[in-house]
Amino acid sequence: MPVEIKDVTFDTVAPGPVSVRIYQGADCARGAPVLLYFHGGAFMEIGLKPCPLAECIAGTGAIVAVPDYNAPGGGIFPEPLEVGFAIFSYLAKKRAGLGDRRSPFLIGGEEAGGNIAAGVALKARDHFADELDGQVLLSPLLDPFMATQSFRKADEIGMRQRWAEGWSHYLSAGVCHPYAAPCLCSRLSGLAPALVISAKDDPLLDETLGYANRLQAAGVTVQQHVLPAGTGWPTIHSGTPNGTGQWADILPRQFSGFVQNISIH
C-alpha cells in the first residue's frame, strides 16, 4: 500500500511543542491501528529523518507517528522517556486526528527507540494507563552493560563504539532507573502485549530475546520472531537500511498478525 508522509507539530503536549512525522497508509480503513513509534539513533539522534521501519509498518494500513523525542531534553534520561510518555498520554486522550475510537493504540520503536517504548510501557502500567493495547519492540537497546554474547558482533557492523557513547550520553545524569534500562526491571507483570523482533545476525539479539522471555515468564502475551541471518536487518542500526531486504517482507506480516491477535483478545 502506498504511504503518505507529512510533518506536523504537537503543540500542546506537556514538554512543549514536539515535531512529529506521520506515516499513513494511503488507503487506511476505519479502525486503523495507531502506532507511536520511537526512532533509533543510539539516544543521540535529533531531527525528523527518514524512518524506513515506520514507513514499512504504515504500508499495512497503520498510522505511524514518529516524534523528535530527543530534541526537547537533549537525549539524556529521563527527558526522552518523559517526552515519550507525554505524547503517549496526549494521543491516548486526544488522538490528534489520528485513527478513531476503534483504532488499537500501540507504542513501539527500534534500537534506542525500542528502549523508550519499553520504558513508556512500564510507566503506562505504573500509572494505570489502560489505553495501551500493545508494544512493538524491534531489537530494543536495553542492556547498558553490553555484555551479551551476541553483542560481540557489534564491532562487525561498526556499532560498538556508537552504542557505548549512546549509553554514556543517555545515562550521563547519573541515573539508571528501570525505565532507563528495562532489562533491569524486576517487575514486568501487567504490561501490554508485546511484538518482539530481532535477527540471528543482530548484535542485540540476546538482550531482545532475554527481555521477551522475561515478559513471558511474567505472564505478558508475547509474539516473538527471529529473522534468519542475511535479511539485512542489522543495517537498521546504522540508519541506512535496505528497504528491499527480506525483513521488509516479514515485518508487515508480523505486525498485522500481532494487531489482529490483540484485537481478538
Number of E strands: 8
What is the topology, as strand order, of the major beta sheet?
A: 1-2-4-3-5-6-7-8
Helix content: 25-40%
The end-to-end distance, rounded to whole angstroms, is 27 Å
Beta fraction of the residues?
15-25%
Description of the structure:
With 265 residues, the protein is an alpha/beta fold. It contains 6 helices and 8 strands, in the order E-E-E-H-E-H-E-H-E-H-E-H-E-H. It has helices at 52-58, 79-94, 112-126, 160-170, 205-217, 247-264; strands at residues 3-10, 18-25, 34-38, 63-67, 105-111, 134-140, 194-199, 222-227. Strands 1-2-4-3-5-6-7-8 form an 8-stranded mixed sheet, sandwiched between helices. Helix 2 (79-94) packs across helix 3 (112-126). It is globular, with a radius of gyration of 17 Å.
Secondary structure elements and pairings:
Blueprint: E1 3-10, E2 18-25, E3 34-38, H1 52-58, E4 63-67, H2 79-94, E5 105-111, H3 112-126, E6 134-140, H4 160-170, E7 194-199, H5 205-217, E8 222-227, H6 247-264
Which terms would index this structure?
8 strands, 30% helix, 265 residues, alpha/beta, 8-stranded mixed beta sheet
